[in-house]
Amino acid sequence: MKKFTQLAIIAILIIGMAPFAAASEITPSGIFISGLEQFIDEYAAEFIGSKTAGASIAIIKDGQIIFNKAYGDAIQDEKLAGKDDVFEWGSATKLLLWTSVMQLAEQGKLNLNNDIREYLPENFLKKLKYEAPITMYNLMHHNAGWEDRIVDLFYSSPKTVPNLEGALLAWEPVQVFAPGSVVAYSNFGTALAGFIVERLSGLPFYQYVWENIFNPLGMTETAIHPLQKDNPSVEERRGLIKGHVPGTEKPVPSKGERVYIGLYPAGSAIGTAQDAVKFLSALMPGDEKSILFNDNNTLNEMLSVSLSFREGFPRFSHGFMEHYGAVRALGHGGNTVAFSSLFTIAPEERFGIVVMTNQAGEIAMCSGLTKALLGEYSASEYTGEFPDASKFTGLYTMARKSASGFTNLVTSLQFFPVKYIDENTLDLGGAKFVQVSPYMFKNTGGLEFLDIIDYIFVETKNDLVTRFSVTYFDIVPVGAGKMILNIGSAVLFVLCLLYIPVALIISIIGAVKNKKRKIPSNLMKKLNITLFASMAAAYLNNIFLAARAFSFSVYSSLQVHFILNIVYIIFVPICISLMLLNWKIEPAKKSMVFNVFTMVISLIFAVLLAGWEFWR
């Protein structure tokens, strides 16, 4: 009987310890490590080749790589991807930057709460609108207030890539929000933090990363130099990899996949997944001394929440973005013109995932597989009354957009309606979001490109919505007046464009008739033709401007187009004045409507070019 009692106690202890033993053998979503390869193989088989070109995946648990495999096409001539192939990190590079910043903060060289202008050359930032200080926390949280910059982010030729300081000075974005007020993802702000690392360390940023991150971790299969000059092997292998973009049926090779990044601390790292996961391993808290920091408390601080949507709902942890899954997870995604990635860690579980694909805007493997391994987030139960979702309807636009220069017109038209479906369901731009707590909505599908957004939060003041928020940007209301102005401007642009062929046809018909009647051309007709011809030339000029800007031309090379626009803006009122003066001398009653239309349309076009800043 005594022996039976002892065996029973042992059995109870084994059963009681089973959940703890199993925890180290499963993913956060409950997939057994022993069946992980089969699960990922089956998952990849569903998407690779149809929605995703190729992918390289590495997973770490308790300091050990438990999965490392590649799928699909990655190399030229359609060769299968391998785990030794290199992929572009994109914005996941920023994790290296924030780690560098925390290293300098630990050494006392940098205070995260100080105004960053203390660490920059005098008058380095010339377009600040607000006197409030900009701190390193603002850069980490992307809420320094800057507009987004579209031009001079990528370069098509390595010969045109400036150094980091030159890239920052090439086109400083305008500050449109007060620091700390609105989150608008900023590559410029991140690269600026990299420049501060350079100034405080006395080393080029890429060299700092090699000496303080790559070398200590043995990351020999990664490069971060904008031209990959810091790792010739990676540079050579990057020349073999082939990037893709989504196609109508399946991904297709990208024509302009090889680009270079001037703001390189924001997104230029390239390497293998098995090398990248070494970095994630070093971010796992534990009893052993951190390889990256002198004190483990610094690592714990870096992984602690530094910005929340509201109490209990974390948003950023010192530049690392919070992920809502079955366990607390954080990390960063990345996108370039032909590659995507997602780096994620669950610190308490000592579990990390690196997913890298050779396809722009890839979702199925990066976001989908990561969610499958991290599990579903369970929103906290709320017993009170939910606010009426109908109060949240209206027109909104992303805070992350251009607010100055010639790209302003395009981004100003990017607004979307938030529609009321029922008492706790909203339609945000075509995606369906269901209310799971008073100010938190869950994405339940509708638009594939929004699959990267799991949850969205709403901020209100006096019962009015001030913003919707996802991790890396806010969505702000658009006033009716602003919307009318933007739409009206677009309509006028189109009308001006349509008038050019109409005026050309009228002029040709008139010239033919006058030739038959042997009526000589007068000054008014010549001025009229000159005016709409100049408008046609201005349109062509701006078509070339847009084509060059979005094919990664250097911003300085676009100056000629801006000068031509300025010439047109000045020329139009001069030409109209000459026409009005000539009208008194040589009235042309038959062509009066044509002349008036040409003057009005050309003037409208000049005003639009000036108002929408097509001169810079």
List segments where confidence is low: pLDDT < 50 over at least 5 consecutive residues: 1-21
Note the overall shape.
Answer: globular
Estimate nothing, just give the exact number of structural domains.
3
Mean of residue pLDDT?
88
The CATH architecture designation of the largest domain is 3-Layer(aba) Sandwich
| Rg, Cα atoms, Å | 29 Å
Main beta sheet = 9 strands, antiparallel
Beta-strand proportion: 15-25%
Helix count, per DSSP?
16
CATH fold field value of the largest domain:
Beta-lactamase
CATH class of the largest domain: Alpha Beta
Which class best fits the helix and strand makeup? alpha+beta
Helical content stands at 25-40%
Identify the CATH homologous superfamily of the largest domain: DD-peptidase/beta-lactamase superfamily
Strand order across the largest sheet? 3-2-1-16-15-14-13-12-11
Number of strands: 24
The end-to-end distance, rounded to whole angstroms, is 91 Å
